[in-house]
Each structure stands twice: as structure tokens, then as C-alpha cells.
């Protein structure tokens, strides 16, 4: 934070005296730590989370949020009734149901302030599951948030001129999309040169 004020290094939400190793299985704990720090240090109505392989058009997200109620709102592109993986990278052995509750796809999501406050006030009771997306779905299912579905929160590396977020991109794709956005206001393509 000292150079640019834009990177936050967090400790474990579950064990604050311990450093948090940056590995996939620690992402839910890392996310809770970030929300805890933010709730204690920043005034906000909404907070967004995206993956580092995502291209984000913040102005489009803000425009959609202007039309959104702020109470118990969870904004994103949701997977519904996804089967719980029992093997592989995303194997979940602690969650015993056969399907997950709704969760936002990997590109990210936006939460209203009250949902973040609920999460941070219940950190000691929240079990950390295998991934942050499914953990968030499991945690928030307890309070039935308002799911605000938007398919322009793209989950599969595709592009749409009106996108909010596109994910699963490499750095070259993200740079190209940004250049296109600057040159012709269309992150997907500027046409023949």
C-alpha cells in the first residue's frame, strides 16, 4: 500500500496472527480478510470482487448499479444447482449436499454493504470451503440475498461490446481489449485498420 495505495496484503481472517499463504485453497479466507479490512476502514455502498484474469468495464457496472436496490443485493452471473465436485482441483469434501446453492461464476460479483457487514460479523462461524465462489454462495444462502442476474458478467472468455466483466483471459487479451476500448469504445473489436 505504501507506494501506490492499491494493494492490500491480508492475514488470515480465522487466525489473524498468522500470515496468509497465497494458494488457491486459501482464497475464501483471503476474501473474508479483505472484506473485514474494508468494512473497518472504508465507507462504501457496494464492493466488487474480480479475478486477476478479468477485463472490467467499471463504468458499465456502475451504470447497472445505479438501477439496483442496495439492500441484501448480490450482483453477478450466477450458476444454479451446480453439482458439488468430489474429485479434481475443485473437490469439495466438507459440503455434503449434492448441489451448491447459487454462486457467482469466477469472473466476480458485487455485494451490497449490508451483505459484507453480515459476512464480517460472522467470520468465526463461516466454514471455509474449497473455493471462494462456492464458499460465498454457501455462506450467503443462509440469509437469502437478492440475486441480481446479469449475463453481461461474462464467465467464459467471450466478449460483448456491452460487457461488464469478461474473465478467463490472458494478459495479451486484456491489453488488446483495453486498447480497443480506448480506440473505438468497443473492447471486442475495432474493425479493419
UniProtKB/TrEMBL annotation:
A GO MF term: hexosyltransferase activity
Any matching Pfam family: Galactosyl_T
Annotated organism of origin: Ciona savignyi
InterPro entries, alphabetized: Glyco_trans_31 (IPR002659)
Pathway: Protein modification; protein glycosylation
UniProt-recorded name of the protein: Hexosyltransferase
Catalytic activity: 3-O-(N-acetyl-beta-D-glucosaminyl-(1->4)-alpha-D-mannosyl)-L-threonyl-[protein] + UDP-N-acetyl-alpha-D-galactosamine = 3-O-[beta-D-GalNAc-(1->3)-beta-D-GlcNAc-(1->4)-alpha-D-Man]-L-Thr-[protein] + UDP + H(+)
Enzyme Commission no: 2.4.1.-
Annotated family: Belongs to the glycosyltransferase 31 family.
Location(s) in or outside the cell: Endoplasmic reticulum; Golgi apparatus membrane
Major location category of this protein: endoplasmic reticulum
A cellular-component GO term for this protein: endoplasmic reticulum
Enzyme class: transferase
Transmembrane segments: none
High-level lineage: Eukaryota, Metazoa, Chordata, Tunicata, Ascidiacea
Entry annotated with the keyword Transmembrane helix: yes
Amino acid at each position: 500500500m505504501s507506494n501506490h495505495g492499491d494493494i492490500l496484503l491480508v492475514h488470515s481472517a480465522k487466525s489473524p496472527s498468522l500470515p496468509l499463504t497465497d494458494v488457491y485453497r486459501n482464497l475464501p479466507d483471503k476474501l473474508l480478510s479483505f472484506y473485514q479490512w474494508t468494512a473497518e476502514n472504508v465507507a462504501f455502498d457496494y464492493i466488487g470482487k474480480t479475478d486477476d484474469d478479468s477485463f472490467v468495464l467499471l463504468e458499465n457496472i456502475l451504470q447497472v448499479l445505479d438501477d439496483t436496490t442496495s439492500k441484501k443485493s448480490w450482483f453477478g452471473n450466477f450458476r444454479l444447482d451446480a453439482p458439488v465436485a468430489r474429485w479434481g482441483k475443485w473437490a469439495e469434501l466438507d459440503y455434503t449436499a449434492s448441489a451448491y446453492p447459487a454462486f457467482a461464476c469466477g469472473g466476480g460479483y458485487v455485494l451490497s454493504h449490508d451483505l459484507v457487514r453480515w459476512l464480517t460479523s460472522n467470520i468465526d462461524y463461516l466454514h471455509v470451503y474449497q473455493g471462494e465462489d462456492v464458499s460465498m454462495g454457501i455462506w450467503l444462502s443462509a440469509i437469502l440475498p437478492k440475486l441480481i442476474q446479469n449475463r453481461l458478467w461474462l464467465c467464459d472468455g467471450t466478449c460483448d461490446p456491452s460487457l461488464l466483466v469478461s474473465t478467463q483471459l490472458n494478459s495479451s487479451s486484456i491489453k488488446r481489449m483495453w486498447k480497443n476500448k480506448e480506440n473505438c469504445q468497443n473492447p471486442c473489436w475495432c474493425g479493419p485498420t
